[in-house]
Amino acid sequence: MRVLLVEDDPLIGEAVRVGLARLGITIDWVRDGELGLQCARSEPFDAVVLDLGLPKRDGMQVLRDLRGGGHLMPILVVTARDALSDRVAGLDAGANDYILKPFEMDELAARLRSAIRSRSGRADPVLRSGDVVLHPDTKMVTKNGTAVSLSAREFALLELLMRRPGMPMSRAQLEERLLGWGEEVASNALEVNIHNLRRKLGMGCILNIRGVGYFVPRDEQPCSH
Q: What is the pTM of this model?
């Protein structure tokens, strides 16, 4: 999951960045509304966490501009404005959720997952592909009911593919979704992670179409070794 955080308070922003990163969520952080709007329009984020009291462009205007421009990614407003009128205005402007500061990181992560599930039309938080089951909330993966240990990057890659079963994603798309700004990785890191996932879960659990990309099969078919 790749999330854009638009927050001008350095303490809150750093706490959210570190806290969500520990939960396996890739965070890109900007500190003003104008830059936040530009980034949300141009980058493929899974969701936006948006403060309201921002310099250069108020968060409410950012929200209205994104929705007015047809951008449908989940947007979670986090703010200290606790008046009922503010909450109603935020939701009416297109926010998927409204979270009052201070908040716990686990709750923010859970609300992000819920908003993304709703956006994709999934009511069940559990992802399945054949005999592989992934639990986004507990970070657990099982194959035939047996727990499989994955690294944080392996889990993030598998979750990204399992949210789009049968839909190939190119190397560039996968790296764009999995990596934050300024994050450097080895040129073969994606292939190494895919190799490790196939070794742990079976060769058939991640398929590829040459020149197109990688995908997981839909959950009707079991993963083969």
A: 0.65
